[in-house]
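Per your request, structure below.
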C-alpha cells in the first residue's frame, strides 16, 4: 500500500498486527516503535500548539502493560525534550505494586526527565491514552486513573481508543473517548465504523513501513470515498455525449398518497447528471413531476424496456395500493435488459424476495439496495443470511451481500456500501442535515443517475468491441452517497433546511466535481 493509499484504505487491526509480525521477527520492532512514538509526539505537540505555547505545558499518559504503552512512554520522552512536563500514569501493576509497563520506554522517559504519578495531574493540557491498542481482547473496565479524568480533558489516543476493537469498532465493556487518534501502520477499520468511529475523533494514519505487508484483497479493505474516487466513478460526460449516452434513469416512485417522493427522486437523478429521466407512475405523480421538471418524460409504465439504463424503484410507493404491481413491472422491464441497473429503495426493500435477487444475480443485473438502519434490520430478518447478524457492521454487510448477490448501501451519518465480492466503501462526509424526510428519495435518484451513466458507458464500450469488465457497484453507490452528503453540507452552509432545495445543491456539487476534473485535465467518461 502506498503512503497515499494509507489515507484512503482501512484494514482490520488484526491485519496490521499480522503485517507487523515478520518485521518484528526481523528485529524492526524498536525502530517501528520509535517512528510511531515520534509521530504521536508530533501530533500531541500540534494539539498543544493550537491552544498556545508547547513548552511549559504538562502532558500525561495513561500507560498500559504492552507496546501501546511503550509508544506512549517514548512519545512522552520526545515531548519532554520540547520543554513539556511529562507524566506517566501506569494503569497496571504487578503484585508487589510495581508498574507493569514497557521497561525501555520508562527508562527513556526517566532519562529525559519525565516522572511517574498515580493520577493524571489537574494541570495536564493533554492526556495520551496508551492503555491498550491492537493487543486488546475481550472487554475493558476502565482503570481508576482513566475514570478520574475531568470531562473536558483533551485526549489523544495512541493507535486506538482503549476499549475499542480495532477490527470491528465494537465496544464490549467501557472505552475512553478521544479527541483525536494517531494510528500506526494503516487506518484501522474499527476507527471508522461502529462505536469506534464515534470515540476516535479525528484519525491520523502514520506510515511505519508496513505498506507491502498489508492485505490487498478487496474483502480485507475498507476504502474511503474522496473526490478523486468519486470523479473516477462518475466522470464528466464525454464531449460528444448526447442524452442517451449520459444514461436514462427510469423512476418508479411516488403514489397518490406520497406524490412528493416521485418529484424528489426525479430531481435527484436530474441533478446528479442523468441524460434523461422517465417517471413511471399514476397521473397524480406524473403531473407533479412535469410541473417541477418539464424536461422529464412521464408515462404509466415507464420507458420501453430496452431504453432504461437504470431503474429507481420504491420511494413513496403505496404498499396499501399497487406497490407490488409496479415493483413487478420494474423487474419485468429489467428481465428484458438485464445489463440495466436497479436501485431498490424504501417500499422495494419490503417487497424484494430472495428468489428475485437470485434471478437478478443470475441475469447479471447490478442491484443496489439502500436501507437505513431500521430497514437493514428488517431486511436481514426477512431475508436471512449466514453471518449477517454479526455485531460487526461490515462483516454483516459482507455476509448478506455475498449470500444474496446484491450491493447494499447502508445509510447513516457514515454510509457503507458493500458489494458481493466484499469490496466495501465508506462515505464519512454525511451530517445531521441529511436526517430529514425525503433526503433518501433524492439519494435514490442520484444513485440511479450514477449507475445509469456507468451502464451507458459500458454499452458504448461493448458496441465498440471492448470488454468493459465487472461493474464496480459499491464504488458507484459510494459516489452517489458522497455527492449527496456534500450536497447536504452545502445546504447547511447556505442556511437552507428543507429537502426541497437539496437537489439543487446536489446539482452544484456534481457540476463542481466535473469542472474541477476539467481543470485537473482528467479524462471524461
Ligand atoms: N510491536 C511493535 O513494535 C509495534 C507496536 N505498536 C504498538 O503496539 C500496540 C500493540 O501492542 P501489544 O501487542 O503489546 O498490545 P497492547 O495493545 O499494548 O495490549 C496488550 C496488553 O493488553 C492487556 N489486555 C488485553 N486485553 C485486555 C483487557 N480486556 N483488559 C485489560 N488488559 C487487557 C494484555 O495484558 P494481559 O491482560 O494479558 O496481562 C496485554 O499485555 C499497537 O496498538 C501499537 O500501539 C506500534 O508502535 C508499531 C510497532
Ligand atoms: K490506546
Amino acid at each position: 500500500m502506498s503512503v497515499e493509499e494509507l489515507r484512503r484504505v482501512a484494514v482490520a487491526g488484526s491485519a496490521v498486527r499480522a503485517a507487523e509480525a515478520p518485521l518484528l521477527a526481523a528485529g524492526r520492532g524498536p525502530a517501528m516503535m520509535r517512528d510511531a512514538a515520534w509521530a504521536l509526539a508530533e501530533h500531541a505537540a500540534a494539539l498543544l500548539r493550537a491552544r498556545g505555547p508547547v513548552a511549559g505545558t504538562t502532558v500525561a499518559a495513561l500507560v498500559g502493560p504492552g507496546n501501546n504503552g511503550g509508544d506512549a512512554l517514548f512519545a512522552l520522552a520526545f515531548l519532554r525534550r520540547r520543554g513539556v512536563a511529562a507524566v506517566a500514569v501506569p494503569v497496571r501493576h504487578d503484585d508487589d505494586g510495581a508498574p507493569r509497563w514497557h521497561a525501555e520506554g520508562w527508562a527513556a522517559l526517566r532519562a529525559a526527565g519525565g516522572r511517574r504519578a498515580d493520577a493524571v495531574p489537574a494541570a495536564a493540557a493533554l492526556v495520551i491514552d496508551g492503555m491498550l491498542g491492537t493487543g486488546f481482547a475481550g472487554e475493558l473496565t476502565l482503570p481508576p486513573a482513566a475514570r478520574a479524568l475531568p470531562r473536558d480533558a483533551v485526549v489523544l489516543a495512541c493507535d486506538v481508543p482503549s476499549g475499542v476493537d480495532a477490527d470491528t469498532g465494537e465496544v464490549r465493556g467501557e472505552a475512553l473517548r478521544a479527541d483525536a487518534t494517531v494510528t500506526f501502520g494503516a487506518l484501522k477499520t474499527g476507527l471508522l465504523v461502529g462505536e469506534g468511529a464515534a470515540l476516535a475523533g479525528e484519525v491520523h494514519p502514520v506510515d511505519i513501513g508496513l505498506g507491502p505487508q498489508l492485505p490487498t484483497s478487496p474483502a480485507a479493505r475498507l476504502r474511503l470515498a474522496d473526490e478523486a474516487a468519486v470523479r473516477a466513478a462518475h466522470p464528466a460526460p464525454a464531449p460528444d455525449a448526447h442524452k442517451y449516452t449520459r444514461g436514462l434513469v427510469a423512476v418508479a416512485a411516488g403514489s397518490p398518497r406520497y406524490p412528493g417522493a416521485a418529484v424528489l427522486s426525479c430531481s435527484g437523478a436530474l441533478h446528479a447528471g442523468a441524460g434523461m429521466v422517465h417517471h413511471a407512475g399514476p397521473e397524480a405523480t406524473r403531473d407533479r413531476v412535469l410541473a417541477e421538471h418539464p424536461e422529464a418524460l412521464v408515462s404509466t409504465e415507464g420507458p420501453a424496456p430496452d431504453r432504461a439504463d437504470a431503474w429507481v424503484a420504491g420511494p413513496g410507493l403505496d404498499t396499501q395500493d399497487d406497490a407490488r404491481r409496479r415493483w413487478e413491472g420494474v423487474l419485468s422491464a429489467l428481465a428484458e435488459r438485464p445489463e440495466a441497473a436497479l436501485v431498490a429503495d424504501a417500499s422495494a426493500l419490503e417487497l424484494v424476495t430472495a428468489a428475485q435477487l437470485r434471478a437478478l444475480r443470475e441475469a447479471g443485473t447490478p442491484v443496489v439496495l439502500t436501507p437505513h438502519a431500521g430497514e437493514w434490520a428488517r431486511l436481514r430478518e426477512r431475508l436471512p443470511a449466514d453471518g449477517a447478524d454479526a455485531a460487526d457492521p461490515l462483516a454483516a454487510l459482507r455476509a448478506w451481500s455475498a449470500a444474496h448477490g446484491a450491493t447494499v448501501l447502508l445509510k447513516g451519518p457514515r454510509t457503507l456500501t458493500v458489494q458481493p465480492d466484499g469490496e466495501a466503501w465508506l462515505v464519512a462526509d454525511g451530517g445531521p442535515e441529511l436526517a430529514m424526510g425525503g433526503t433518501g428519495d433524492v439519494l435514490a435518484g442520484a444513485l440511479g443517475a450514477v449507475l445509469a451513466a456507468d451502464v451507458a458507458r459500458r454499452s458504448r464500450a461493448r458496441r465498440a468491441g471492448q470488454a468493459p469488465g465487472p461493474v464496480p457497484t459499491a464504488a458507484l453507490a459510494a459516489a452517489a452517497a458522497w455527492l449527496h452528503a456534500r450536497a447536504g453540507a452545502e445546504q447547511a452552509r447556505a442556511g437552507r433546511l428543507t429537502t426541497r432545495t437539496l437537489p439543487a445543491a446536489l446539482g452544484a456539487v456534481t457540476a463542481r466535481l466535473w469542472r474541477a476534473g476539467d481543470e485537473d485535465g482528467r479524462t471524461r467518461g
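DSSP finds 18 helices and 19 strands in the chain.

Regards,
D.
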